[in-house]
Design goal:
Length: 293
């Protein structure tokens, strides 16, 4: 597969200009670039994920067939774990997902990771909204009978553009890092936290291997129109993940919903006397302000 490496100049606020490449086939009417491992189907005019990672979006993230995948990309269009689609045209902080997954590496079988992902989108112009920053909360604790989760430790990450701020229950003062300049690797209560930057694909990737979780973030580039590399947030959760535990886990509290059922967003919108699914996510965010924090 051919790889395009056309240089692109992008200036981030408060930093020197950075030069990026653009990998992957050019595809779609916006001339988006596919992931390097994906190919452009000229008939469907979309990027297709490879056979060994067939789930996801060939423009953004491809995951294993056994994984669950959710994304909030572009302005922003949300793809739920079950394949539902909707838009969130509202500048707000919103919960995308919350789930628990067993912690591997010799931990007791009741020890689980808890993962929460929030997006913060902002109005750009002409009614367009993009995910401007991302929050990730990682927990370690015990999952008891009835789905009760007893948190023992947590660490909070906030990524906006090129600056990463984080703090944990052990280090209360905020720490700051720049993953665009140097990878962040830290052992934390049995989890090898890895936050890396791919300059060619312009992704910041959060990896928690002992939890089998990966989260990608690509920021909106205001100086590039159209943006050749699709901006947004992608979330890969493993098959062992548990969703919907507690009032703040499933829809409408979190917009990725839960895997398994494929809800008809039109019917959900009609139940709330809304005109279309596009309004459904705005209703969910406004209705669940306490859960969205």
């Amino acid at each position: 597969m051919a790889t395009c490496w056309t240089p692109l100049l992008l200036t981030l606020a408060g930093t020197l200009p950075l030069v990026f490449g653009q990998p992957g086939d050019v595809c779609m009417f916006l001339q988006r670039h596919c992931l390097p491992e994906a190919t452009c189907d000229p008939l469907l005019r979309r990027c297709v994920c490879p056979a060994d990672r067939p789930i996801g979006n060939g423009l953004f993230q491809c995951v294993r067939a056994t994984d669950f995948y959710c994304e909030s990309t572009a302005d922003p269009k949300i793809l739920t774990y079950s394949g539902g689609k909707g838009s969130l045209t509202l500048p707000c902080r919103h919960c995308l997902t919350k789930f628990y997954t067993p912690l591997s590496g010799g931990a007791p079988p009741t020890t689980h990771c808890g993962v929460e992902v929030f997006g913060i989108n902002n109005h750009v112009k002409r009614g367009r909204y993009f995910e401007e920053s991302m929050e990730v909360v990682l927990y370690v604790g015990q999952l008891g009978a009835g789905g009760n989760f007893l948190m023992e430790h947590n660490i909070f990450f906030y990524l906006q553009r090129h600056i990463l701020n984080y703090r944990s229950t052990e280090t209360l003062p905020w720490q700051e890092a720049n993953p665009y300049e140097k990878d962040v690797d830290m052992p934390w209560h049995g989890i090898s936290i890895s936050i890396t930057y791919n300059a060619a694909e312009r992704f910041v990737t959060f990896s928690f291997p002992e939890c089998d979780v990966q989260i990608k973030f690509r920021p909106y580039a205001p100086n590039e129109r159209p943006q050749k590399l699709l901006p947004g947030i992608g979330i890969q959760a493993p098959q062992a993940a548990l969703f919907g535990l507690g009032a703040s886990s499933g829809f409408p509290a979190c917009l990725c919903m839960v895997p398994g059922a494929n809800p008809d967003l039109n019917e959900l919108a009609e139940e709330q006397w809304l005109n279309c699914p596009k309004q459904l996510y705005m209703w969910a965010v406004l209705r669940n302000g306490p859960h969205q924090r």
